[in-house]
Amino acid sequence: MNKLKTALAFSKNLLTTGALFQTSSKVEDAISSKISNDPNMVYVEFGMGHGNITQVILDKMSPSSKLYSFEINEEFCDTVRKSIKDERLTIVNKGAEDLNSLVERHVDCIVSSIPFTLFTKEKTDSILKLSYDKLKSNCFFSQVQYSKVLKKKFISSFDSFELNHVSKLPPEFIYHCLKK
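The structure assignment produced for this chain is given below.
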C-alpha cells in the first residue's frame, strides 16, 4: 500500500489507530527487538494496522513459532490477509481484551501499538493486567507511544522497564516492560 493511501486510511480511522501514519522502520526494529528466533515461541501483536510491524516480527521469529495479531479494524485485517501470506500468522479481528479467549497458553512477548491514550483508565488497566498475566516470566510487553503520558502506568504495571526514545518528530517512545 503506498504512503498516501496508508495516510488516508489511518486518518480516516484516527480514533481507533491513534496515529496518522504507519510507524517508522526505526520503530519497527526497536519495538520488535525482544523477538527471538528460538523455536516454538508464541508472540502476540496488539494493533496490527497494515502489517508493517507484523512483517518484521515474522522475519525475526523461527519457522516453528506462532504470531497472533489483533486488530479491531476489519479493513486493515483484510489488507494484511492479502499482503502477508504466512502460516505462522493468525489474524484476529478483535481487541486486545479478547486475548485470553483466543490464545490459550502463556506468551513469550507482546508487541503493541494500540492507542492507550485514547482508552479509558479502566480499559488501559484491564489490558495491561491481562498482558502481564498472559506473559511468561522474564518476557516483555513492548509498546510504542507518542508521548510519556503513560510512563507511570507502565512502571506500576510491570516489574521493570526500559524506555527508548526513537525519534523526535513525531516523538516516538518504545517501552519494553518486563515481567520477572
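Interim note for the steering committee: The longest helix spans residues 121-134. The mean pLDDT is 90.
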